[in-house]
Amino acid sequence: MHFASDNWAGAHPKIAENLSRHASGFASAYGTSTLDKALEQTFNEIFEREVAVFFVGTGTAANSLAQASIARPGGVTLAHRGAHIIEDEGGAPEFLTGARLQAVDGPIGRMNIDNLEAAVKGFRSGDVHAGRPMGVSITQSTEIGTLYELGEIAAVAALCRKNGLPLHMDGARFANALVSLGCSPADMTWRQGVDILSFGGTKNGCWCAEALVFMDPAKAQDMPFIRKRSAQLFSKSRFIAAQFEAYFAGGLWLDLARHANAMAARLANHITASSSLRLAWQPRANEVFAILAEETAAALHANNAIFYDWKPPHSERHLVGTNETLIRLVTSYATSAEEIDRFGRLIA
Amino acid sequence: MHFASDNWAGAHPKIAENLSRHASGFASAYGTSTLDKALEQTFNEIFEREVAVFFVGTGTAANSLAQASIARPGGVTLAHRGAHIIEDEGGAPEFLTGARLQAVDGPIGRMNIDNLEAAVKGFRSGDVHAGRPMGVSITQSTEIGTLYELGEIAAVAALCRKNGLPLHMDGARFANALVSLGCSPADMTWRQGVDILSFGGTKNGCWCAEALVFMDPAKAQDMPFIRKRSAQLFSKSRFIAAQFEAYFAGGLWLDLARHANAMAARLANHITASSSLRLAWQPRANEVFAILAEETAAALHANNAIFYDWKPPHSERHLVGTNETLIRLVTSYATSAEEIDRFGRLIA
Amino acid sequence: MHFASDNWAGAHPKIAENLSRHASGFASAYGTSTLDKALEQTFNEIFEREVAVFFVGTGTAANSLAQASIARPGGVTLAHRGAHIIEDEGGAPEFLTGARLQAVDGPIGRMNIDNLEAAVKGFRSGDVHAGRPMGVSITQSTEIGTLYELGEIAAVAALCRKNGLPLHMDGARFANALVSLGCSPADMTWRQGVDILSFGGTKNGCWCAEALVFMDPAKAQDMPFIRKRSAQLFSKSRFIAAQFEAYFAGGLWLDLARHANAMAARLANHITASSSLRLAWQPRANEVFAILAEETAAALHANNAIFYDWKPPHSERHLVGTNETLIRLVTSYATSAEEIDRFGRLIA
Amino acid sequence: MHFASDNWAGAHPKIAENLSRHASGFASAYGTSTLDKALEQTFNEIFEREVAVFFVGTGTAANSLAQASIARPGGVTLAHRGAHIIEDEGGAPEFLTGARLQAVDGPIGRMNIDNLEAAVKGFRSGDVHAGRPMGVSITQSTEIGTLYELGEIAAVAALCRKNGLPLHMDGARFANALVSLGCSPADMTWRQGVDILSFGGTKNGCWCAEALVFMDPAKAQDMPFIRKRSAQLFSKSRFIAAQFEAYFAGGLWLDLARHANAMAARLANHITASSSLRLAWQPRANEVFAILAEETAAALHANNAIFYDWKPPHSERHLVGTNETLIRLVTSYATSAEEIDRFGRLIA
């Protein structure tokens, strides 16, 4: 029962097959091949507009280079306190930009819009001591398996526009959010006002396929140099393109995300039905958080359920009682209903 | 006739197959999987000692993080004027370290040992204005297809030891150099005094497999953090491990390099036999440099020979006459004898 | 009535005079002059041990270079949420180190020791995603005019020692804290376990005289290079040395701090006696914080009282009621009793 | 006989006096005081246009922040091989920008315009591997006491304009160059096409007064944040303003530079008359370079002549024979004719 992370899964067979299919033959390097160019066109189609796409190797890179593209001296990006770019990138966004991140609070993994507005207003124009805001970053789906509704994204974007701040979306689990909301990529991004997207493929069935997508190509003019100096320009870049080709073909990416989400919902049902666990909050994508007695968690571990105990988010730490623990259960394209039901029997 | 670069080839079938073989199943992420650990052991065996290995995504990353591991305030790394870290990394080594690089001249792609010694001695102890040396970097095989002999590596290493400087080897084409010299990996590295190696697999048949190898694991204690903050820690790291597994199995890597080198030698023979081209210098690995009339180069291009005109190295610029050009022809595991001979007929 | 900041004052006449006295004559540059060396010796005497001293130009530089001296990849320094290095350096500590700062809460400007311990323990060994602690920084006197007692410094230091973390003290108002506690420089620093001190002279009567003091010179070996690459090595460094010479001569620095503190106490007395203002917390050095109606603050401004309205510290924001404001009143060596009493009459 | 450097002198009495004059009284901090603003106006007058002025503490800072203001990802600034920003800033320009410097050769301390053009053309548009030019920097007067004629500056500027590159002038010895050419500050800068100037006052009689001058204020919008994050924003900034006030009053700065240059010319005359030394090249400002037998240099040192043996510039290294040495003799506002003549008698 593998619920540790969606990055514990490997690669979907169709993605592995496509890599094999493209293994032979010569192609120009550094993102200039026919396949690379074809996939750039696919991104245009998926987003229903001409976008600028940059393949990179890791989600950390996508998020950090997004920040680098908007960095300015004294700059500060605002993000949720529990955001990956604040808590889990090993300082890469700061190291690769020289800029700072500032935490904004809000329940269930999302910035409260009033807190965000207060944070933006907290910077006085020209105050070099405090610095100045340079952007806002949201995560969709969030670190804790929740979602921003489209209207909420639009509200954040409106605040950004008003203050001249670009809006970045960390979409490490973009597909999971998309199928959960049942909207289009364009709807979840630029139609609401998102400027830059970290488009993640790795957690949803690729080996290593991340893309930085600029909704306005004019804003990406420095990116080729930013990517190179950050050691993220791959010579045989088509190996990323080939993954994305299979990922998008026939809507595979959406099918994989739907499966992962369905498995999460099935898991949530088991938890709701159990008297020994309770859902910490309603899962909206492929991550389920539950609260249970520490000894119950230990017993589950002992019965080969693999998952992480999770540090309670700042806004939700009151939910976890004494001798209780919060656990995170992540599903993926590779999760089977059988696994879920085995876990269900264990907690019944 | 593809001679543009060894990174225009794709991935060897055995490497693609192995990726498919490892695509299913769950494995812990971020370099902690059983396969990752097994490959670390393989590196120990290949280098006949316990080494510290860090998988990264690009050669730029391997070289830059090697520099980061030895960086110190005011530090300067000495390398050949034509070295990749000086000319072709888009400033990544400087950007990711805050340190500087200083060019040392020498014929056919190798630092002259006297020039290197003079450069080291040029730094006076404690002179904060000029800075201080922090390391030396050599490329094996060099940017222009030549080699340092083992004794020459030892001489550079002796100078390094005497001055307390770590010695880095950029081994983007490590295997090509190895089979050319006919020695062991240990012989070409730590037995001569190399401390840190950028071990490249990509150019020799992998999709994307680079490793940073520290001969003394004690010198690599900061590397996990350096790698993460530089966005080079891959979640599904086993996709790199799987490539290396196939790469090393049955000595595939050496076979591929031998093939590439043999194709280069075959190409050199054609050039020697031709009256319209001449070898710029003797090729020792899988890169052949030739000098020819500009119009001849144009004619070759027109006949579907794909290669780059090359800026003559500083020390060899006198070799190229008026109306002549220097061209680079690179062979790889995927080059066929038929291609070579077709080119041979073209220049006969 | 100038209470905006102690950096609105100029330079004490004795300091200006000493600069004039040293204006003539030749002296070797970049911190090597006889006067520079003599002042280094004075620092040894003042701290009752051999220390390593580095003159720099600004408090931002002292604090940032202190961080640079302890920086390591993935590193995070812990400081109070309201600390100058977190809120008021324009990102310089992060920019000049590549490392991060993490806020720790605590009442009246001081880190709560339990919060600090929890923050340190929050980092799991080897967790590259979260990074690792690299140091702790305290401010003495604090940003809001309070103090760490000697025993409290010792407690922070003990926690640091236990976790292998160097302890930095931001002493922009070192002298004010010192005379308030009535202890020696050694008592307030290394005897309690402080490793690195930003020793500020500027706010207490110098033009521009800041020093970075390493209690263990062996820990300062990289500092000459760190200072130079950060553009903080002054050619005519003796102009800083000359300021410090006069600053220390006859205990001037302590006299100036005693005066500033006495003026603050006198001001606090006026506020206590007034019915229209109340002390936000007890002042311990040369900064007085008061809470009053917004309209009262406006009236004071209109009567030529110069001070800043202050953003309430996170832990004290509940103290300020609706339609109230928090104000900061800073005294200095140049503040006169007459000014204080004029303000006193205004609020009576 | 002090010829080691112009930064071995102290401060001119009038500058020290003015500091004393401004020592009392309160003034707003961080460059906002009346005096600061008045001096900004003075700079406008001196440059005959509205400029943006930023006071900083060191020449290293002025040069590095100039680079930071024009930095872009992958960027490279071109400067003479012997330029201070390349050889003598301890890596500060690279550290504070993340960008690189590239050396251009040329005789007697000045870039050869053809070499410069070749260097610019050496960057192919969009080549992320090599990076891209981001600016050009010239030094006036040069590191070795020579000058760019106005027409030569204009030629460099024309090349810059044509290639969209800002032109920076390192004016650590700006005044010395100015009085030597006998032109106005506007003539030597923006009228020829200089965009950014490091205006040095320290070497010419100030304690510590450097200014970064942007000929087009619109290009300086990020500078307040760049200066702060680089720890170069001085709280009691008026101590720099006060130096500049005295420096400019009654043309003192020009008088001091004329004196220093005259002393250099007098020294050159002695050398020309001597049979034991020869001028390395014709001095144009306040630095005289001479070639002499090593034993003669030793004898001069033994007779209390203080100067540095100098590493021969790359383009002039052929001038220095076996057993000979190149020496640098620097004069300043504080050099006396008596000192010069004493040296003259020594070498007669």
Can I get a quick summary?
The structure is a homotetramer of 348-residue chains. Chain A has helices at residues 13-21, 34-47, 59-70, 84-87, 92-95, 113-121, 150-162, 174-181, 185-188, 223-229, 238-248, 252-273, 294-302, 337-347, and strands at 52-56, 75-80, 100-104, 132-139, 167-171, 196-200, 210-214, 277-279, 287-293, 308-309, 324-330. The first copy, chain A, has 348 residues and is α/β, with parallel strands linked by helices.
Q: DSSP helix count of chain A?
A: 14
User: How would you name the oligomeric state of the polypeptide chains in this document?
Assistant: homotetramer
Question: The biggest beta sheet of chain A, please?
Answer: 7 strands, mixed
The beta-strand count of chain A equals 11
Kindly report the spatial arrangement of strands forming the biggest sheet of chain A: 1-7-6-5-4-2-3
Here the CATH topology of the largest domain in chain A equals Aspartate Aminotransferase, domain 2
Average pLDDT score of chain A: 97
Largest interface in this structure: A-B, 56 and 56 residues
Q: Choose one word for the global shape of chain A.
A: globular
End-to-end distance of chain A, in Å? 15 Å
Beta-strand percentage range of chain A: 15-25%
Give the SSE string of chain A.
HHEHEHHEHEHEHHEEHHHEEHEEH
* Number of separate domains of chain A: 2
Tell me the name of the CATH class of the largest domain in chain A. Answer: Alpha Beta
Give the proportion of residues in helices of chain A.
Answer: 25-40%
**Are there runs of chain A of 5+ residues with pLDDT below 50, and where?**
none
Label the structural class of chain A: alpha/beta
The CATH architecture assignment of the largest domain in chain A turns out to be: 3-Layer(aba) Sandwich
